[in-house]
Amino acid sequence: MKKSKGCREQRQLSIYVHIPFCLQKCHYCDFLSFRVSEDEKKQYLMKLQDEIVFFACKYKGEIVTTIFFGGGTPTILKEEELNDLLLTVKESFTVAEDAEITIEANPGTISRQKLKCLRSAGFNRISIGLQSAQDKELIELGRVHTYAEFMEGFRAAREAGFDNINIDLMSALPGQTMESYGETLTSVLALRPEHISAYSLIIEEGTLFWGRYGDTTLHTEGYPLLPSEDEERLMYQRTEDMLSKAGYERYEISNYARKGKECRHNSRYWQRKNYIGLGLGSSSCYDNVRWKNTDKMTLYLTGSPEQYQMEKTCLTREEQIEETLFLGLRLMEGVCLEEFLEKFGKNIHEMYPDVIDKYVSNGCLVIKDGRLKLSKLGIDVSNLVMSEFLF
Ligand code: SF4
Hints:
By secondary structure, the chain is an alpha/beta fold. It contains 18 helices and 15 strands. The strands form three sheets. It has a nine-stranded mixed sheet, with helices on both faces.
């Protein structure tokens, strides 16, 4: 089935499947995840199967090039349950032969046997949540695993044939020092994963950490302190230094990969390509319409898509422009000036003369090879620069 590049591009679709279950809640987590009973899990999986089939009918003719099972902890499910879900996706949608199929996993839920089954069922990328290689820091974070358990899971994934593994890391953790963070990076690099995501801890409202660290007037005595803003910045820079020396390319503000191993699924989010989310609380964006599934389990289980799909919004031209810049500048390749002009009928400089002049002259933005991108300096203050593109 040979098609022109433009035509193929138009018809590509990504699918996100949300599994909102975890063994326990981490202290910093504000994702939609919780513990679940066997009975509720069964009902959820039945509903998810129905949702997959229902949406497959709607998107007939689209070629699915990436699938991402995220959570929560998808690997909390049994291998048969995960494989059934993937099989339903594959049988219901048109999935490209070379589709990237990722599963998020946490140590303690990935036995050798399970990983082998998942690999044979077609999952070809695994993203393992480690966060830190220091057991003390893992305890502070409320993670359920030790570093040794992570190592067991990582080795099992390799043995099962996963040759595309991401490791999730976090910096600016309570009690973390430059030294302990450096040791975490060294340990992870020794494993040669294909991809590393490295985010700074953000203290989110509603989490256990919010009560502890969210309000500086609160009593945090007895708990390890958070690194200072300067230390946080240094940790972020240390990540870049150590990873680039080890042959990883930073392709997004917080994501690094060995050549050709960039996460195709997440890249499609940053490039504003079409994707649909299935499952509780998942988000979708298709042809500039965004919506979100309810995060109320009862409504999700009993309602029709019209009832559980919320906040359906057709993005205005201004919102599309903002998103193009906000998301596109996260990528190191930046935003293509010509594509921008083609899409919005005006060039970026004409639209934002002051912002572009200001940040190009102070060295935070660069225009190179027909693209607008953040410089190394700009990455350090990316939130500030990107917020200036909001209308
Ligand atoms: S494992 Fe991930 S999704 Fe689950 S509670 Fe921890 S941070 Fe949240």
